Every structure is written in C-alpha cells, then in structure tokens.
Amino acid sequence: MFIENAQQLTDCPFLTIVRGYHDPKSPNKNVDEQYPQQEKIFLNIFQIGLFETYHFLYSECRGDEHFKNWIIGLKGADFYQQASLKFNQWYQGEGNAANTSFVSILSEAQHRFWEENGYIKIEGLIDAERCNAVTGLINETLGVDISNPQTWYNDHQLLQGLMLQLYQHETLDHIRNDERLKAVFASLYGLDALLPNCEKVSFNPPVNGNFTFKGSPLHWDIDFNIGPQYYIQGLLYLNDVPVNRGPFSLIPGYHHKIEAELQHKDPKILIEELKEQNLSIPVTGKQGDLILWLQAIPHAATPNCSDLPRYVQYLSFNRY
C-alpha cells in the first residue's frame, strides 16, 4: 500500500528500531534495557494495539516505509504526523511528562477498599450510549444479530477464545480517552502522567449443548522474570452482568500474599493450588461499571449461563 505524500511527513526513527527488534530474520538482538517501555510508549502515542502491530510485523511487513504506511492506513496522515512529533519529543527527552501528584477523585473508603482487596468497582462510569456503540461494533464485526441466538457463535479470524482483537474504531476511542476514566486510574497511580493503552474487547456468549466456555482459567498477566509490579488492569461492562452472565472473577487481597508465596513456589504450581482452593469471587455489575484490579490479583472470566452474551472493553493506562 502506498500513501500519497507519506514522504513529506515527519520521520519517526523509532519505527526502524521496532521493526528490527521484531524482524524474524534477526533473532539475535542487542536491545537497550529501556526498549520494552519505549515500545509501550510508542504503541500508546500512535494508539495501535499490541496484537495487530505484532501480527503485521511478523507476517506482512516488508520494510520501514511499509510499516509507516500501515500506520498511516490505520490512523490517517494527520494523526501520524502529530504522533511522530509527540513520540520524537518524548524519545529525545523533550516532551516527558512530569510525574506530578494527582488529587484523587475517589473517596477515602474507596482507597481503603482498593488497598485491602486489590480491586475496585466504579459504578456507572460510562454512559449507556457509548457502551451500546461498542456492543454494536462487536456485533457488526462478528455478524451477531442479538435477536437470533444462532448468530452468537460465528467464527471470526480476530476472535481468540473470548477475546476479539479489535482496536481501531472511534467508539473504542471515545471510551479510552474519557477524562473521568483517566482520573480514576490517576487516582490509584497517584499521578496523571498516563497514556491509554489500545486494548481489545471481549465477547462471551452463553454456553449450551454445542458451545463450551472458551475463557482462560484462573491466571495472572505477569512477566515472572520481572515479578509483580504496581500495574492496574481494567475492564468495562458494556451490558449488565449478573452472576449468571459470566462475570469477571478474582481472589481479593492476594496482592498481600503473592511475593511471600513466590519465594518458595513456582508460579505455575501456585496458580494450580489456588484453582483447587476455590477462593475466587464473582464481580457482578451493571452496564457502564468499571472494574480495576492489580496485576498481582489472580483472575478469570466465568462461563455465561444466561440468555444473552456478555460484552466487555478492556482498559488500562501506561505511565510515562
């Protein structure tokens, strides 16, 4: 694909670094230890998803100009221009945001609950109109007719288990870029130098005689070579999720125990033990409710035994 006037846009030299790092023909890489965080900021500023970017780099990309044109095709030339300028400034140390303190919008009781349990539910954060717009996008992408249950189980190349690798649409951006959403994350991080991650969505249809639950069992999303960090994960219920509609589940308070347990247990063994102990609780909610949890909290989706699908948009932020 050739983008007219792409040559006239501001160059982003980091594209070459990203492409080189993920070039399957260059398995031996000497990469600066700062690279993983730099790549995260690159994805944040250009507002592209991890999965879609890696898929392109490993299966399609033919060079730097092809990578550049792919981003322009997704985001537009004007967006690419502004993102290149912003990232170049950050990368050169000129546009780094100061990690200033942030006045929390959460109550003392909410902070105490968060500190004790490692998760929190913020009720009614996003309005029904924006939630419905995303469920409509998911339905359109998957060919789902909500009035026809036979269409709820369609296969799609972007659907992996419950996860739909869908990143680029204004309805998703309207929620990711919500100021109150950022303020909640900022309240828990204690700073407002945050950029939204370009995250996926989820579609969890009811189980039946022909369809079994496709979700992952209890797990962490942790790189155990590094260990648990103070990283906040999140999801938004796009429709009502009572206890029988596959609510998110977790083990509250486990962030107080994980480091001690990992000193004498392998993470794979530990998570299997936790599964057997049945310590998880469901976190039900209404449309527009936001659920946040610490990386150290074991969590999982649950089977949907209701009469409607469950819809979720994942949300998180990266500090910079």
UniProtKB/TrEMBL annotation:
<keyword id="KW-0223">Dioxygenase</keyword>
<dbReference type="Pfam" id="PF05721">
    <property type="entry name" value="PhyH"/>
</dbReference>
<protein>
    <submittedName>
        <fullName>Phytanoyl-CoA dioxygenase</fullName>
    </submittedName>
</protein>
<dbReference type="GO" id="GO:0016706">
    <property type="term" value="F:2-oxoglutarate-dependent dioxygenase activity"/>
</dbReference>
<keyword id="KW-0560">Oxidoreductase</keyword>
<dbReference type="InterPro" id="IPR008775">
    <property type="entry name" value="Phytyl_CoA_dOase-like"/>
</dbReference>
